[in-house]
Write a structure and sequence with these properties.
26 strands; single chain; 9 helices; FAD/NAD(P)-binding domain; about 400 residues; binds flavin-adenine dinucleotide; Enolase-like, domain 1; globular; 5-stranded parallel β-sheet; alpha/beta; 3 domains
């Protein structure tokens, strides 16, 4: 069987590997010029702690050993579904028996005045990181727009490079989708103390000013933050243009079933571009699980993709923060264990006697215990008194 995998991010590379191991003839076409690399670890390159080659997951020798034909800098621009032929941006035709779309997501550039000025960066690819690193060296002033997981990682890495960093965030505390207000406040305090990050929040970015290059971020209240570079870390959107133009069913992502089949049974979709049961994933673990499920489908196995609760951790050295499940949901009880002075905070949300969400700050050693409880949906009544201490044996 001839399989074309479109997109050589973590999901595409993993799926290509599994298919090649199973004996398929695999072509892996990636728009980026780089070999497949670990996108999750880009912050280490941004911080100057690693160089790009250290992130490569599938080098030439491995691809050769697997028998994968890898086409870098190859953007697939059209799919002729009737003929089962893909076409790349240079016009080359790539025939397939089955295609797997793994085009991931792209970072959102806010449509603000000045957003396209030189010196305004996105944070998604190794090329973005190299460009940012050049701009940020030598004590530059950086403004990171967005205080979510990615924005904070970018800010901490830039600070490590020697930049003076301000984070502009629209919500009242950072990582508001993963953290409650108390954990968010502890995080802002710790990043201010250990990484010298300044926070402007809640604050809305209105424009980026500059003649030939970004020179200042202007807030909605009129304040101006002078800068040498701006990083926009305000979210991602699934890359679905190819699938949409090919006439596949696309909602936010490419609609797939548990076998990862799109509305065309000869085409599967995996990773951040896929939508399963109304949800699009934004983390690498589900993207890789989808890759495994798609490879199993194409090998004729019946395994399927089963969603697990998402868990998020901030990859900033020395900062222990973890969360999973629903954060501050309506109609849920909260159990809190907090010692602000010691920088410790733990909040758990329960509904109908079961754990539905958890935030751990300062000490994340018990994360596997809570993730297991979330995934199993086991009632907590038998050990409720020990729940906040992660003690399942407590009466
Ligand atoms: C800086 C950073 C840090 C992160 N940290 C974490 C973390 O700590 N934990 C976590 O779980 N997740 C993290 N993520 C998210 C994680 O990287 C993604 O969930 C993961 O990369 C998704 O994999 P994917 O293969 O679906 O998509 P992507 O990684 O987006 O890969 C898609 C690839 O397809 C290519 N492509 C797109 N269109 C085409 C086309 N038409 N033809 C050919 N190729 C195409 C793209 O260029 C890209 O290379 C982080 C992301 C970033 C940017």
């Amino acid at each position: 069987m001839r399989v074309l995998v479109i997109g050589a991010g973590p999901a595409g590379a993993r799926c290509a590997e599994r298919l090649a191991e199973g004996g398929a003839r695999v072509t892996l076409a990636g728009a980026e010029p780089a070999l497949p690399y670990d996108r999750v670890s880009l912050g280490r390159v941004l911080a100057g702690e690693a160089e790009a080659p250290a992130l490569i997951t599938h080098g030439p020798a491995r691809l050769r050993a697997l028998g994968i034909r890898f086409l870098p800098a190859t953007r697939i621009v059209a799919l002729d579904r009737a003929a089962r032929v893909a076409r790349d941006a240079r016009g080359a035709a790539l025939p397939y028996n089955r295609a797997v779309i793994a085009t991931g997501s792209e970072a959102v550039r806010l449509p603000l005045p000045g957003a396209a000025l030189p010196g305004v960066f996105l944070y998604r690819s190794i090329a973005d990181v190299h460009a940012m690193r050049r701009a940020a060296s030598g004590g530059a002033r950086a403004v990171v727009v967005g205080g979510g997981l990615l924005g904070l990682e970018a800010a901490a890495s830039l600070s490590r490079l020697g930049a003076r960093v301000t984070v502009v965030h629209a919500a009242g505390h950072p990582m508001e989708r993963q953290l409650d207000a108390e954990a968010g406040a502890l995080l802002a305090r710790e990043l201010g103390a250990t990484r010298r990050l300044r926070f402007e929040m809640p604050a809305v970015t209105a424009a980026i000013e500059g003649a030939a290059q970004a020179e200042a971020v202007v807030l909605a209240d009129g304040r101006r933050i002078p800068c040498d570079l701006v990083v926009m870390a305000v979210g991602v959107r699934p890359s679905v243009a190819l699938a949409r133009e090919a006439g596949l069913v696309v909602r936010r992502g490419i609609a797939v079933d548990a076998a990862m089949r799109s509305s065309d049974p000869a085409i599967l979709a995996i990773g951040e571009c896929a939508e399963h049961e109304g949800e699009v994933c934004g983390l690498v673990a589900p993207a890789l699980a989808m890759a495994e499920a798609a490879a199993a489908t194409l090998r004729g196995a019946a395994a399927g993709y089963a969603k697990r609760p998402d868990a998020a951790a901030l990859k900033v050295a020395g900062v222990a923060v973890w969360s999973a499940g629903e954060i501050a949901p309506a109609a849920a009880e909260a159990v809190t264990l907090s010692d602000e002075e010691a920088g410790l905070h733990r909040r758990l949300w329960l509904r109908e006697g079961r754990l539905v969400g958890a935030v751990l700050y300062g000490d994340t050693a018990d994360a596997p215990f809570y993730l297991d409880l979330l995934a199993s949906g086991r009632p907590v009544a038998p050990f409720r008194a020990g729940l906040a201490f992660a003690r399942a044996e407590a009466a």
